[in-house]
Design a protein that fits this description.
alpha/beta, Rossmann fold, 7 strands
């Protein structure tokens, strides 16, 4: 199956390492070049804004999904292809999952981790079979990776988590992973 849309889950802040913003921009450019629609949280700030801006600057298509409560707080992006305002965070995540063929997780905070683990859980339960890619920019997720290894070692996972999540250290590697461009 050719991937036509990818959900990006990431921070609404830039983070402390300039590589985070650099990778978000590179990823956005690559999505546009490969004609893959970006589905993301709808914000104009942080890594969310950086990836959306890059897709738009390179002629791509962007669908933002933002809950009503975050419209003012996250400064909804007014320069993207489509912006859908939904009632709450649950509808936001579900809508993003429904609109994407795969998901990429960039650095972020609690919300990003919530989204990552819900994706993994739904994937494990066969609610969906979407590819999940963890962009480990500057080793940001090293400790999380160690923790997932620990969960597996101690018998809390039903399968090898690496069967569900591919870990990469730069955006270009994502597009070298296979014919489906994800």
């Amino acid at each position: 199956m050719k991937v036509k849309s990818i959900a990006i889950f990431c921070g609404s802040k830039n983070g402390a390492d300039p590589l985070f913003v650099k990778h978000a921009g590179e990823l956005g450019e690559l999505l546009a070049q490969h004609k893959i629609t970006l589905v993301y949280g709808g914000g104009s700030v942080g890594l969310m804004g950086a990836v959306a801006n890059a897709v738009m600057q390179h002629g791509g298509h962007v669908i933002g999904i933002i809950p009503e409560v975050l419209v003012a707080r996250e400064q909804q992006h007014k320069g993207i292809s489509e912006l859908k305002v939904v009632p709450d965070m649950h509808v936001r995540k579900r809508t993003m999952y429904e609109l994407c063929d795969a998901a990429i997780i960039l650095p972020g905070g609690n919300g990003t981790l919530d989204e990552l683990f819900e994706l993994i859980t739904w994937n494990t339960l066969k609610i969906h079979e979407k590819k999940i890619i963890l962009l480990n920019s500057a080793g940001y997720y090293d400790y999380l990776i160690q923790h997932m290894d620990m969960m597996q070692k101690h018998g809390f996972l039903y399968e090898d988590w690496r069967e569900r999540i591919k870990v990469v250290s730069d955006p270009v590697t994502i597009f070298l992973m296979g014919e489906d461009k994800s």
